[in-house]
Amino acid sequence: DDGPAAARYTEARLAEPSMAMTEGLGEDVVDFVPNYDNQIMQPGVLPAAFPNLLVNGASGIAVGMATNMAPHNLGEVVEAAKHLLMHPQATLDELMEFVPGPDLPSGGTIVGLSGVRDAYASGRGSFRTRAKVSVENLTPRKVGLVVTELPYLVGPERVIEKIKDGVQSKKLVGISDVNDLTDRNHGLRLVIGIKSGFNPTAVLEQLYKHTPLEDGFGINNVALVGGSPRTLGLRELLDVYVQHRLSVVTRRSEYRLARRRERLHLVEGLLVAILDIDEVIEVIRSSDDSEAARSRLQTVFDLSEVQAEYILELRLRRLTKFSRLELEGERDQLLADIAALEELLASDERMRAQVALELTEVSDRFATPRRTLLTEADAPVKGGRKAAVDPESLQIADAPCRVLLSTTGRLIRVDIPTSELGIVRVPKRSKHDAVLSSVVSSVRGQVGALTSTGRVIRLSPVDVPAVPPAAVRLDAGVRVTDFLGIARGETVVALVDLSGASSDSLAIGTVQGVVKRVVPGAWPDKPDFPAIGLKPGDAVVGAAQAPESDDLVFITSNAQLLRFPASGVRAQGLPAGGVAGVALAAGASVIWFGSVARSDDAVVATVSASSSALPGTDTGRAKVSALSEFPAKGRATQGVRAHAFLKGEDGLTVAGRASLP
After folding, report:
1. Do residues 125 and 182 share a domain?
2. What pTM does this model have?
3. I want to staple 102 with a disulfide (CB 3.0 to 4.6 A). Which of 70, 381, 435, 596 is the partner?
4. In Å, how far are 161, 201, 390 from 165, measured between CA atoms?
5. Residues 6 or more apart from 277 whose CB is under 8 A from it?
6. Kind of pairing, strands 447-451 and 492-497?
7. What pairs with residue 215 in β-bridges?
8. Are 517 and 612 part of one and the same domain?
9. pLDDT category, 641, cuts 50, 70, 90?
10. Measured in whole angstroms, how far is the alpha carbon of residue 364 from the centre of its chain?
11. What element of type H or E holds 96?
12. What's the domain range around 164?
């Protein structure tokens, strides 16, 4: 927000990612052209170690044309480029598995992805972005809206100006004040105070409508390809970059091959001279001048003119035995390098693999986590229990609903009675998605997300995107990690009903075989709280609402299944660390834990494989057994064998339960 400093106080240095754009310029990887005044030569295009046009986007107006390209996540774009490298016939849908949408540096939420797909298909489209806003208690008696991320290219000054104009024109009501608390330590923080008696989320809907807290972005992917402007979709943009990068690596390899051949030629000449150095000296001493010496060296030792000239410039200290060993080692290394470069240039498959390897290295160095949340539904507004619900929910009753968590980590809500839930369809874009956990609640109820670290994060179903009961699609929801702001390495393993309507306790199982039943209704009124005290190295592997009439089931990596009554585990408070659930053999761990009703006609599915097998080379063996075949044992025992291993197999990779049809 400060004014520009004088030139004498400023300097510009290329950042490390920018240096990657120019790597190899000295190795004839691109053509050079005259600059605007024909004084110097400049590269016609940069080597570009990563697809900068897609990663950073572009915006500009030229004579008769304009372009407006959205930024994307470097890691996602690199993965898509690698996939296209190895699969030249890849479709747009396959590439969108890697690049689902733009990733804006300012974060925010992209609402609705149909326009994004249009842009990826044709090069033209549009989408809406919303700010990331949460409802917070500014003081014990005052609630406000806290903006921590703004739409792309929208600054806080513009938002504040529009809010003030809206309040003066009576388009916005219920706003008491707005303060910009942004600083370098905490980042963007725009606090909008709400007057007493006003619905914070209803005010937010007004702000979305009348201020840049919701903004549009029009994609127009116009770029110069071979000197001609073209409108390119995602696949075409990646294909142009892939072909360019193949050309860069090919030209660089040819340049390096030529330089190594030249050096090998000189080294071989030096070795000839050193092997018969006395005669070389005699030839030079008996020559009248350097021209005669060069000609006689070429004749006597069968050398080229370049080799003879190089020998004439040789320093005497290079004539030692150690120097000869160095030259022989250099010759061997040059021969190996030349063979490798020739092999690389002769194989298109190896060339593509080399480009993919270099892209991976760039991604490892510069890729960052995704900042922008992608959702088909409206952006959620998070807040505590006192926060107002979405304006749409004010027009409907607090009806029963079911909140679903998929195996790929997507969260969704179905606003129908439990008896009419039906079957959840597998989403088209993720063929192997399924429901991991579900909980019955109400639209304005309270649900908890239990993570692998043992903490419960509180959320309200009204914030979760809803879908019609007739067409339940898991991919219509939001990623639970983005929705809850979970750090990398922490995963959600189950959903928990926090409304207190159920008298059943929550049973929790860990990787190290610990089991715990939480006292029903022991949930504090906090945004997040621990549900179990974990030992170092332990993690929650599963959880379920378990009445005392149910059985708790552990399945371990060494194919042991333990089933024991839930009543055998005394319910404990939240700080407790649980008790021994299953006795583990050395090197074994728990891979599945759950609760099963004794009258439930369920089956156990297990898949065995070798831990040393490469991914994709061994699909393993699957076994399905009736749970009733496994007798109940005492807690803290090893249970019974659930799966026999064949030669080469050393453990279970997948285990779980399912109901018989």
Report:
1. no
2. 0.57
3. 70
4. 6, 20, 25
5. 319
6. antiparallel
7. 129
8. yes
9. very high
10. 12
11. helix 92-96
12. 132-212
